[in-house]
Hints:
The complex is a heterodimer of chains A (346) and B (622). Chain A has 346 residues and is α/β, with parallel strands linked by helices. Helix content of chain A is 30%, strand content 21%. Chain A contains eleven helices and 15 strands. In chain A, the strands form three sheets. In chain A, strands 3-2-4-5-9-8-14-10 form an eight-stranded mixed β-sheet, with helices on both faces. The two termini of chain A are 29 Å apart. Chain B is an alpha/beta fold and 622 residues long. Chain B folds into three domains: 3-233, Pyruvate-ferredoxin Oxidoreductase, domain 3 (3-Layer(aba) Sandwich), CATH 3.40.920; 244-430, Rossmann fold (3-Layer(aba) Sandwich), CATH 3.40.50; 519-621, Rossmann fold, CATH 3.40.50.920. In chain B, the strands form five sheets. Chain B has a seven-stranded mixed β-sheet, sandwiched between helices. Chain B has a six-stranded mixed β-sheet with strand order 4-5-3-6-7-8, with helices on both faces. In chain B, strands 21-20-23-24 form a four-stranded parallel β-sheet, with helices on one face. In chain B, β15 (380-382), α15 (389-404) and β16 form a beta-alpha-beta unit. At the A-B interface, β1, β3, α2, α4 and α10 of A face α1, β10, α10, α12 and α13 of B. β3 (77-80) of chain A pairs parallel with β19 of chain B, so a sheet runs across the interface.
Amino acid sequence: MSTVTGAPGATQGGAPKYTKKDFESDQDVRWCPGCGDYAILSAVQKTMPDLGIPKEDIVFISGIGCSSRFPYYMNTYGFHTIHGRAPAVATGLKLARPELKVFVVTGDGDGLSIGGNHLLHVLRRNVDVTILLFNNRIYGLTKGQYSPTSELGKVTKSTPMGSADRPLSPCAFALAAGATFVARTVDRNIAHMEETLKRASAHQGAAFVEILQNCNVYNDKAWNVLYDRESKIMSELRLEHGKPLLFGPVDDRRGLVLEGVRPKVVHAKDVPAETIWVHDETDPATALILAQLWAPDYPIPVGVLARKEESTYEGILVQQEQRAISERGPGDVAKLLMSGETWKIG
Amino acid sequence: MSETVAPTTAQKPRRTLTRAVIRFAGDSGDGMQVTGEQFTTEAAWAGNDISTLPNFPAEIRAPAGTLFGVSSFQLQFGSQRVYTPGDQLDALVAMNPAALKVHLGDLKPGGILITNTAAFDQRNLDKAGYAKNPLEDTGLGEKFRLYQVDISGMTMKALEDLPLNAKEKERCKNFFALGLVSWIYTRPLDPTLDAIKKRFAKNPTFVEANTRVLKAGHAFGETAEMFAEHYGVEAAEMPPGTYRSMTGNRALAWGLLAAAQRTQIPIVFGAYPITPASSILEELALHKRFRVRTFQAEDEIAAATAAIGAAFGGAIGITASSGPGIALKGEAIGLAVTAELPLVVFDIQRGGPSTGLPTKTEQADLMQALYGRNSESPVVVIAPATPGDCFYIAYEAVRLAIKYMVPVIVLSDGYLANGSEPWLIPDIKTLPDIEVKFRTEPEGFFPYLRDPATLARPWVRPGTPGLEHRIGGIEKQDVTGNISYDPENHDHMVRTRAEKVRRVAQEIPPTTINGPATGDVLVVGWGGTCGAITAAVEEAQMDGKAVASVHLRYLNPLPPDLGQLLRQYRRVLVPEINSGQLVRILRAEYLVDAVGYNRVSGMPLASQDILEAINQLLEAKQ
């Protein structure tokens, strides 16, 4: 007979009380000093206790790249896989173990270039995973080639005369793929990052978070427009559900209005308050407009762009499995082998 | 073939044959696959041993009447052991000129040739490239027993009063051919009548139409003067038990189900549709009650990596494809090698390279399975011998993958996948145990701590408290699993991963020799050529030759007794449907002067060709 030992399933009962320290692994962190990844790691570790999930039920999956070293530094289960494929590995894991809390950590190259197809499909299927995409607009681990989010004309080692391909908006990509939760945050805005991570990880279904991250070695201050105290005021648009889209200096607030499907920046004082566009996280159509706004013409939205509740992929499959079992009983190979056309000899 | 005239109760005399090879050939839309499968069932009911060879174009509905649109189904059935679908045909049914042109060359002189005369019109003759009607060539009737039958016309006539349109009626004609051939070989119609009822359960008119046409074909044989005699093939002596017809792909799927039931852990099966592997995905998708979670992935890589993710989660992770897909999965298989996770990969080989011949068979992925990844990336490679053996090989793949925490590649092929044989249904309790030991004990745990006998590292399910750990594709220190770039450690890990695969040899049973323990020629084969090799070797043995054969189900590692065995014979012959892959390995591994017999036509090897190769080798020696 078969012997299966050590199949505990997810831990029963309430999770222990954790602190950030419980999620720090014993491995030396090997990112460059000053890398934005440190802040993200710290924020993730800090928000983990709030999940209320036993840490043995948490898994971090990554692909390849600087960001993908992340799982080694988390004292949870972790799997550092191959370039671009983390969403597929995570999908398989969730199919096997729907009860686990699974994070995917990826970057702009890993997630949108070599792994673009998998990112598309994990979002489309609405697999219940939280995806953190660190966007530094550069290939760091291979030492400085341009990425799918690098601006047109970007001069890098592989594009000495400037890149010829136009950048992609990760959030617009995620929305177009049908993601059920899409947010953007910034590595240097710790409070906002923590708040966004909490909301993303609480979402049931595929949650996508673009984290604007600094590569101080190969693409320093790529997000300076959101780091610099002066420019940030005019360039950061904080999204809050049900609140008007306002930004800019306190004494001269700017607002966004929608003219048909065209967004327009106005001086708030020049228009009636009720004409200012009010953010609605549950509206994917306006979220897609927001995802494409970019400085300098528009402010850059940060926060939750869109969210909706949908059945998860693995949830539907498990339901089908339970239905099949309840309708016809659990499978029995001996019976299956004898099913259909058989004949006896001797 | 031996023939004896036997007394018969029918009006026409009946000859008893020991075996017969029949091929039904027609347009892709003529229903030749259904006809062949149905005839196979009839022969199975009559207790024959059987081997089948479906052969169809890659195009779904190739233009009617063309040479490339011809679809065929061949089977051999007999009262003795049948090892192959047969080399040359005893009977050919050609539903149109194209089918005649493509297949006539395989018909034995004096063989039965049944043609559907209505289809031999100018249009079809032109499409097949016949300058004039071959049926009018007197040579054809002299060389073969030619029966020109107006199959289409008689089908239409039988259905005259039924409320079906002309096209619907015409489509029944394959059952006329089936009825006629069933009469010629005295096969029972009952299983086909049952099948018609089931197939058209929702449409009584179709049941009536197909039943009528089947019986009309049968009656035509009985009454038409052109058929002077018919044939019987007695039941074969086969081990007692309950049998069913089994194709290779279904057997692979069911073998997985047996493994899932035994281990009580779920299966996650990742696949991207590809010929000839897709039917495994489709079969498993029917069996959700067995806790099979099928995942039709966005691509081959996702199919493999999802299976790896599932294995990391403590499920049985499987992925299946054909050669082109396996090429795409290479990096992922390498990840499973270094992460030391149990992963099962089915490669249903087809003609290549690149897209190649999607619906034809080949054995040319052996080197890809062994070496088709970057760096030193050893995996276990095993291969089934027959369609029914696929059941056991799938089960064995799961057992080995879990026991050794290693990827296992199963090399099946298009011939085994679609071919069928009567399969003795096993008592699943007799299958070997699959021991699953998820580690739960935190004391002394390290992710790469090894079992001293198998070198397997512990399998830990995420969710187990106190065993949180990280693994990945970067080289790791043995035991601790920590990232390590240390030169000595890397060399040690390369050797350890290889040694782990090598130790699977302790699982391999002693090699069975078909024939004398020493002699002139040993024929070594693997995979779907097993039947053709066995048939050829047995024929050589009947001629008094000192020839034996061994069949390898384990290709990496090889059986521990193989090296010794190869030296018991003067010459070693390795027939393969590739340019000589196993033969190179045997030469390199054992320093024996093995020679290959290689033919890469997309079709199974013919046993007569293998016999000829054996004889040539025997003569060369003298």
